[in-house]
Each structure stands twice: as structure tokens, then as C-alpha cells.
Amino acid sequence: MSSHDLAGVDLRAMAAHLLERSDTPGTAIALVVDGRTVLTAGIGWRDLDRSQPLGDEAAFSLYSITKVFLAVAVLRLVELGRLSLDAPICSVLPEVALPEAVTIRRLLDHTSGLPDYGAMPDYGRDLRANPGAPWTPAEFFERTLRQGLLFPPGEGWAYSNIGYLLVRQAIERITQGPLRDALADLVFQPAGLRQTFVAESLADVQGLTPGYSAQLDQDGRLRDVTRRYHPGWVSHGAAVSTAADLARAFEALLGGRLLQPASLATMLDAAPVPAAHPLFVRPGYGLGVMVDLGSPFGRVAGHAGGGPGYSAAAFHFPDVAGRRLTSVALANRDATDLGMQIAFALATGYAERVDPMFRG
């Protein structure tokens, strides 16, 4: 058994411990070191009864990890001369009544001042009342933007899903097709992905591993949401993938095979985020990517995703004891930050096994 194999045994145990602690059935994980896949595994179970083992090819909803793909698509359109990062969104979508200072760049890095809908009472109410019938884009805009801007564009930071709905519509307007086709052409196919796509309907998510949530019911019991929760409740679109495919995507992106060097540098040029996170030393946000500006592993970049039934994360660690590492974790329960906890545990666990300085 090689050192990678030994690390894999230990890392599986670490992931299993985090599943047990959060009462989550299972997780699919992938770890890539210096461009070589050293670990893919399904850990735990597909079902709450713990009777069906979770396979390593299980598919999950990625939720906000989709923002990374949207940002890559925009940057590729910029490289093709079809879009400018500093173009006002109203120049691409003339029907949108927003100030010219609300640019594509500010939508991507959450400095536009646009509010969000996630904590709005009517969003939660309507989601629980009819999880299979999401708001239309017009409803998302009308209900969210009635709050007005939170701050002048460029003068603050606030996470906004509605901003990424505008990014999605800009991509669709420029490419003259649905987001599913645009991301396939601009991101998924160039990255060599085989099992990643944008889910558009309940039928599209029937092949996912069961995802368990208590968000859709009043009794607090965990139930599988895959036949009930329409992906359209994620206004900017929700991609579906496997751990191995998602790791392949981040390796292609952060390894410099999807974007030109200047574009990738722009993506990773993150501003500090005025909030703490237990897994980040100095949180920042670039164009569609969460960035740790103070990590001992270099400029760590990636994204987490969470929503009914799933907790997901994919992060790239550029210097783990001298090695490049991509860590992915997809869990089948919507426990807060569980995907991030597992992905970061895999990275730190690997570091501890290859370099004594990270131990203790």
C-alpha cells in the first residue's frame, strides 16, 4: 500500500467522523494532488436507514458552486470580445432598471449593492408551500429589488444571489440560448466534464443521490427532497455533478487550462469580506470564487454550496507541503458548511501526513 493509499484510509475515517457528528448519511469525496487523482470515494450511505452504500459516482446538486461556472463563462466571453467586465448590466439587459454603476464585475464579486432573497420571509414561505413551483425570474426580481440597493455600487460587500440571476441572463442574452447550453459550451466541455450539467426541471434531478432536509416540512423530520424541490428555486441556476467531475473542473480552472492567465488572475483578485468564517484566516471574494487571503496553503480558492438536501464544497489549495491539491466533498444532507468542513479536513489531513510541520 502506497503513502497515498495510507493517507486515503485515514482521510476516509476523518470524513466518516464528520458525517457521524452531523448525523449525515453519506458523502462523496475526491482529492487531486499535483494533477493526479489520489482518492475518490463514497463514504457512508445513500439512505437514512443506512442500508444502501453511497457510491463514488453519486451525483449531487452543487447549488452556489454554480457561481464559479457562471464567472468562468463570463470571463471566457470577455476573452472572446463579446462582453466587458465593466459594462453596466443595463447595457446588456436594457430592460433592467438599475444604475450604470451596477456592472458585470460588481455582480460577480458581490459589490453591486443588490439585496438577496434567501432570508426573506415570503421566499421561505412560498418554498415550503409549493417546493415544486419556483418563482419566475420576474418574481425573483420584483420581490427582491423592492428592498432597494443596500449601498452604492462599489462601496460595500453583500452576497447576492439575485446579482447572479442577472449574470445568468446576461450570458443567455449574449449566447442566445439557455444557460444549460452556454455552460456546456464555455465550461463543461472544455474542462472535459462528463457528468456535469445545469438542472432545469424536477425530471433532471431524479438521478441524484437522495438528499435529506427538514426545510420543506413543519415537523422537523428529514426527508428526501429530490422528487419535491425544483432546481428553479436557485435563481441563477443549479449545476449537478459528481465529486470526481467537480474536482476535474477545479483542476482545469485553477491549473490554468480554462482561462488565460490574466483572466484567472482577475478572477482570484479578491477583496476582503467583512465577515469571519471558522475555516478561513482572512475571507475574501473574487469573481465567483471564495478566497482565503491568509491561508498557510497559499491563496485557497473555491466555493461552497448548500440548499435543501445537500451540502457541497470544492476548493483548490495551491501549496500543501509543496503540492497543489484540489479537495471536493458532496454530502447528502443540508448541514451548514458540512461540505466545506470535509473538504478542508481532507486538505489539512493530507498536509499532516506528508509534512510534520502541520501536525499538532
Rg from alpha-carbon coordinates: 20 Å
Major sheet strand order: 2-1-13-12-11-10-9-8
Percent helix among the residues?
A: 25-40%
Structural class: alpha+beta
Average pLDDT reading? 94
Distance between the termini: 25 Å
> What number of domains?
1
Percentage of β-strand residues: 15-25%
Count of helical regions: 11
CATH class: Alpha Beta
If you had to describe this structure to a student in words, what would you say it looks like?
34% of the residues lie in helices and 19% in strands. With 360 residues, it is α+β, with helices and mostly antiparallel strands. It has a single domain, classed as Beta-lactamase (3-Layer(aba) Sandwich), CATH 3.40.710.10. The chain starts with a helix and ends in a 6-residue tail after the last helix. The N terminus is likely disordered.
Summarize the structure.
The protein has one domain (3-29, 37-281, 299-358): DD-peptidase/beta-lactamase superfamily (Beta-lactamase, 3-Layer(aba) Sandwich), CATH 3.40.710.
Q: Topology, pairings included?
A:
Elements: H1 3-22, E1 26-33, E2 36-44, E3 59-61, H2 66-79, H3 89-92, H4 104-108, H5 121-129, H6 137-145, H7 161-175, H8 179-188, E4 197-199, E5 212-213, E6 223-224, E7 238-242, H9 243-254, H10 261-268, E8 271-272, E9 283-285, E10 290-292, E11 300-307, E12 310-320, E13 323-331, H11 338-354
Antiparallel strand pairs: 1-2, 1-13, 3-7, 4-7, 5-6, 8-9, 9-10, 10-11, 11-12, 12-13
Features:
360 residues; 8-stranded antiparallel beta sheet; alpha+beta; 3-stranded antiparallel beta sheet; Beta-lactamase
